[in-house]
Amino acid sequence: MKKRIYCMLLSVLMVLGTLLPAFKVSAEDRAKNITPNVNITEFKILNGQGQELNKTSRWSRFKIKLVWDAKKYGNTLKNGDYFEIELPDNFRFIEDSSAVNFPIYGVDGKVYGQGKITVKKAGGGTVRVTLNEKVENLYNVKGTVSMEALFNQDKIKLGGKNKFIIELNGKKHETEVEIGNPTSVENEILAKWANRIYDKVDELSWTVRINVKKDKFKKVVFEDELTVTEGSFDGLRYKKDSFELRKVEIDKFGNIKKTFWKKNVSDKIKFSNNDTKFRYEFGDINGEQYILTYRSTYKPNVKVKNTIKMLSQGKTHISQNEYKSAISDGTIEGDLLGKIKIIKVDAENNQLLLKGAKFKITNKKTNKTFELVTDQNGEAVSDKLVQGTYEIKEIQAPSGWIKSDEIINVEVKDNVAVIRTVKNKREKTEVSVNKTWIGKKLSSVKVKLLADGKKVDEVTLNEQNNWKHTFKNLNKYKDDGKTEIKYTVEEEQINGYDTEIKENSKNDFTITNKNNEKVKIPVEKKWEDNNNQDGKRVKEIVVRLLQDGIPTTKVLKLNEQNNWKGEFTDLDKYNAQGNEIKYTVKEETVVEGYDTEIIAGQVDGALGYIIKNKHNVEKTEIPVEKKWIGPASVEEVTVKLFADGVDTGKTLTLKKSENWKGKFTNLDKYKNGKEIVYTIKEAKVEGYESKIEGNAKDGFVITNKNVEKTEVPVEKKWIGKAVNEIEVKLLADGKEVQTAKLNEANSWKHTFKNLPKYDENGKEITYTVKETKVEGYESKVEGNAKNGFVITNKNLAKTEVPVEKKWIGKAVNEIEVKLLANGKEVQSAKLNEANSWKHTFKDLPVYDENGKEITYTVKETKVDGYESKVEGNAKDGFVITNKNVEKTEIPVEKKWLGKALKEVEVKLLANGKEVQTAKLNEANSWKHTFKDLPKYDDNGKEITYTVKEVAIEGYESKIEGNAKDGFVITNKNLAKTEVPVEKKWIGKAVNEIEVKLLANGKEVQTAKLNEANSWKHTFKDLPVYDDNGKEITYTVKEVAIEGYESKIEGNAKDGFVITNKNLAKTEVPVEKKWIGKAVNEIEVKLLANGKEVQTAKLNEANSWKHTFKDLPVYDENGKEIVYTVKEVAIEGYESKIEGNAKDGFIITNRNVEKTEIPVEKKWIGKVLKEIEVQLLANGKEVQTAKLNEANSWKHTFKDLPVYDDNGKEITYTVKEVAIEGYESKIEGNAKDGFVITNKEIPKKPRIPKTAVGTQIFGYVAMAGVSLGLLQISRKKRNK
Predict the structure, then answer these.
(1) Taking every annotated instance into account, which residue ranges of this chain make up the domain SpaA-like prealbumin fold (predicted)?
(2) What are phi and psi of 465, to 5 degrees?
(3) What is the CATH number of the domain that holds 631?
(4) What is the reported pLDDT for 96?
(5) What is the pLDDT of residues 146-180, one digit of tens each?
(6) Quick one: pLDDT at residue 673?
(7) Which structural domain range is residue 590 located in?
(8) φ, ψ for residue 245 (rounded to 5)?
């Protein structure tokens, strides 16, 4: 029995021993360090735009880019595998979370791993890249890591190239960057920059450097603003207590050499409402240098811009800086060659990955099928598949989503990964809401839709949408696809309403709002009985409230104590049906002798009811009429009413337009039971007497008499001599009523005063005046009573004025004399020999219109060339004497032959005696006229005038002309000059040349220039001016030299330079040759001393040849030009240039086109581990390649020349190193690739392999049998 048990146990152990290797493999699958087989294929330093950095400054931020591959691991990489790379200490890494912890993204935008930098304080660090489960379906994994960094200032050199080395697995990878020297900022006024605060990712420090230049500024103000230029950050603001100012000494590179003091200036800063702007009124800066620092809030990955302005007396300096936290990142890629990968996502949210979607995959050729189910990442990946067309069909949707009916056909190839994203729509539902009102409706309300208590949507309900809405396209289930979402609705709070929400059925809601508004009804009692004039009022009344016409139990008692007012309060505005209640009131107390009226109206500012009780007292009215004696001076008058002698305050306006009649109406007839006695008074009308007649019963008549007074002024005026006194009479309507005496004592004026304006009938009196006649005078009365009268008396006395003409010198034939009265011409007369040069002006008035004596004078009409003198007076007569005063003038002009002086002096002589002098110069154009000269002397003889020039040393003077036509003084200048000339050559010189000197274009001298006189000559002793006084223009001219181009520069003053350039020409031939296939055309450039001057196209039409012609041999400096040629580069060709300009150039192009040849290995039968393939070029072996499973039995021979050294196309073939036991067949060509198929030569029948799954099943079965036998054995033993 024991032996049998032992055998069974041994069987179990054998089975377990067989299974142990499987457990061992599982343990080996855990995460591992893959660093030893990871390679770095590229190491670069990039700027912010992703461009490779060659030169930068010491403080620049940049990215280190590493390209890595882990292809050696094929498709064996697992979740958690990692590799590490040491980073050199001449870098410093920024400890922002996004710079040292960063995701590694796949080509599908999903995270395939995580990067983490362990930063060393002294510089450098280690980056670890950890992969996740998404790499487990990838072959040949590779990727990048980009890390934001700074230079370690202790480990770099300025002003030169710095070498940076990263080493991995014994291989060094190098790159170089030039770091420039610091630049001078000695002229800087304002600069600012941001600094990261290393222990606070949510704050930034800002530094402002002020006045490095040491300038002076008055009334300085700083204005600063923070803005976000990339990203979103509502919390951006200054740290208001962080402002610190330092007075410092700064060197020309911006470094702080010394700090004098520092202080917190936060209390001097004025901030904007949102704390993103500030203003700092700094004051004067007198050459000092400052540093201002402050902090702001910050949010990682947001770009913040800070702008500061410095304002001083109209000038502005601005500095800006932007900051964004450092970001590192990475990428990863691999392949899923020969596999299908399905990614399942929500149709509305690509980030929501769906688990549990089942797909049926069918090989369209074989109809074989298999199923894939998406995992928790929403992904499903097949095993490697046979090439062909496959159909993908979803057969089961994730719970909570609708199955997609889309059928997807894909083509699977060995070298292609098939990735398809399938989207599923969620199961949807909808929620309805209906709004009802009890009471007054609002214009609109907002209703929120809640999903599991959280707001997801909102709608505004109103009359336009009939107070209804349906929220549609709502997810029915949560993201797990199983839990149904609970939808509810919620209304925003509405004051004055009670809200009830009822769910009628699932997801169908009614919201009812009842208006709970209250109202109050004020009531006021008003008595209309003239303040209880008849004493019939009651002491109190009772008022009842009615609701929609039905009496209620609510009453008010109104009396004098409550001022006849009361109020019904706390009344519902709406009834249970939502209709507004109509409240009214009713007076229940009956008041005898009063009529009652209830009206709605304002009571103390609120709408209520007014109860009016009216008692009609007896009334009367009083007519009033107005009469006038004389005109009415006003359009209306006011009449006051008195009751029992007391002013009632009532007035009546009587108007002319209403015939001066009116009535006092609606007057109480009685007061306290007695009849009122009414009287009237008129408001006083100035200038009128008033009389009131009549009574209140019959009416009153008010008569006004005009008592206005007037006065009439009168004035006496005289034309001519006045008498001592006159008498004036005043007439009223033609009847004399008063008289007055006018004389010098009362200034010939009088006013008749206190005269009635109107007569007894009210007509206005007409007043006139009349003078008692004065002998010998003519009298005239003007004016009127209103403005006054003027009586003018005119005296008519006459006189006469004699005049005589006398001459000194020759007399003219006749003259005209004018007689002036008070300066104005009144008569004229002709005097001549015929009337003995005499005349008398007769019958002239002695007095003018104003009564003043007229002043008579005479005036002669001007006689040219004569001076006139008037003597005498009007009484005795006038004598006019004329004297001849003719004038002359003498012009003089200065002319120069040669250079003029600044100024000359000319003297004028009269009969040989100097009488005047004049200065002549350029300002007066060398001309002057002596004017206003007497033509005759005191004896009447004509004066002889001449001119004389003050002598000028070195000048010859000549005077021409006369006094009548003018004088011309000519001065001639004899200055001499000389003209130098020099000869220069560009190119080879001749032995000798001849130069001609031209004066105003005419040849005057010649000279020979040669090497003996150093190619120089000076023409001497040349006159500066010609005979006309113009400066001579001297030029030079060279006798022409064949083969040379002559250029003359300079002038006569500084000398002439004649440059001769050698015009020799040359030509440069060029020829094109080809090794290999030629292109259609090429372009060749001709270079002169390295600069392009011409181009030419070479092709078959011109036999690939061209000659550049007519080329100058010498350059502008006379040096021989070096000609070369250059071909415009042709892609795929190697160019070689031989020859020279003299013999010609040959450009040979060799076709260096490359090609590649793919080769693939296929097997029929057993596959070996590896084979070798040889590549033959024109039958000769040039390369070999190993094909195996690791490279998918494929290889491409690359970088192969298309043409041989003779330019002929190379024929490429492949050959396999023979394999024993296999037949080899090669198909294809170099262009499309070769396929080598190896077929195993059969030796014996093949034995089928047993599947691994079947082996495991057998082991398990054997173990089960063994354990069963063991159990049976125990049972038997126990029995």
Answers:
(1) 338-425
(2) -105, 20
(3) 2.60.40.1140
(4) 64
(5) 888 889 988 888 889 999 999 999 899 999 999 88
(6) 58
(7) 518-614
(8) -115, 135
CATH of the domain at 417: 2.60.40.10
Average pLDDT of the residues in 523-541: 83
Q: 930-964 burial by CB neighbour count: b if 16+ within 10 A, else e?
A: beebeeeeeeeeeeebebbbeeeeebeeeeeeebe
> 244 in helix, strand or coil?
strand
The number of beta carbons lying within 10 Å of the beta carbon of residue 839 is: 20
What's the pLDDT tens digit per position in 1087-1117?
A: 999 999 999 999 999 999 999 999 988 888 8
> Which residues lie closer than 8 Å to 1065 by C-beta, 6 or more apart?
1109, 1110, 1111, 1112, 1113
Asked whether the predicted pLDDT for residue 19 surpasses 50, the reply is: no
Phi, psi angles (nearest 5°) of residue 767: -100, 135
47 shares its domain with 167: yes
1227 and 1137 belong to one structural domain: no
Residue 170 belongs to a domain: yes
Under 8 Å between Cβ of 1196 and 1158: yes
Domain boundary among 859, 884, 909: 884
Task: State the helix-helix crossing angle for 2-28 and 1252-1278, rounded to 10 degrees.
Answer: 150
Instruction: Report pLDDT for 1031.
Output: 85
pLDDT score for 18: 43
**Interatomic CA distance for residues 370 and 386, integer angstroms:** 13
* Rounded average pLDDT over 329-351: 81
Q: In 740-785, which ranges are continuous DSSP H helix?
A: none
Tell me: do 554 and 686 sit in the same domain: no
Looking at beta carbons, which pairs linking 727-731 to residues 24 or more positions away fall under 8 Å? 727/771, 727/772, 728/769, 728/770, 728/771, 728/772, 728/791, 729/769, 729/770, 729/771, 729/772, 730/767, 730/768, 730/769, 731/767, 731/768, 731/769, 731/770
Q: Closest by alpha carbon to 1030, among 972, 979, 980?
A: 972
The DSSP call for residue 121 is T
Distance CA(314)–CA(335), nearest Å, equals 66
Residue 36 near residue 66 (C-beta atoms within 8 A): no
Residues 173 and 95 in one domain: yes
Asked if residue 328 belongs to a domain, the reply is no
**What is the helix, strand, coil percentage profile of the chain, to 5?**
10, 60, 35
Tokens of 258: 């010394």
Q: Residues 318, 374: one domain?
A: no
Q: Mind giving me the DSSP string for 281-334?
A: EEEEEES-EEEEEEEEE--TT-EEEEEEEEEETTEEEEEEEEE-----EEEEEE
816-826 per-position pLDDT tens digit: 999 999 999 99
Please check whether residues 1086 and 1212 belong to one and the same domain: no
In a domain, 329, yes or no: no
Q: Which residues pair with 988 in a beta bridge?
A: none
Q: What is the pLDDT of residues 666-710, one digit of tens each?
A: 888 777 757 889 999 988 888 788 889 899 888 999 988 888 889
CA angle 60, 68, 326 (to 5 degrees): 30
Average pLDDT over residues 310-325: 89
Residue 360 has pLDDT above 60, yes or no: yes
941 inside domain: yes
Domain end (from 759, 794, 829): 794
Give the pLDDT confidence of 616-629 residue by residue, as tens digits. Answer: 777 889 999 988 88
Give the torsion sign (CA, 592, 598, 601, 607).
Answer: positive
Does 870 lie in the same domain as 815? yes
What is the average pLDDT across 48-53?
78
- With cut-offs at 50, 70 and 90, classify the pLDDT of residue 1250: very low
Q: Which element (helix H / strand E) includes 144?
A: strand 139-151
Over the chain, what is the mean pLDDT? 86
Same-domain pairing of 49 and 170: yes
Q: Is 400 helix (H, G, I), strand (E, B) or coil?
A: coil
Q: How far apart are CA 79 and CA 68, in angstroms?
A: 18
**What total number of domains does the chain contain?**
13
Q: What is the largest CA-CA distance in the chain?
A: 203
Q: What is the dihedral of CA 86, 89, 94, 96, to 10 degrees?
A: 40
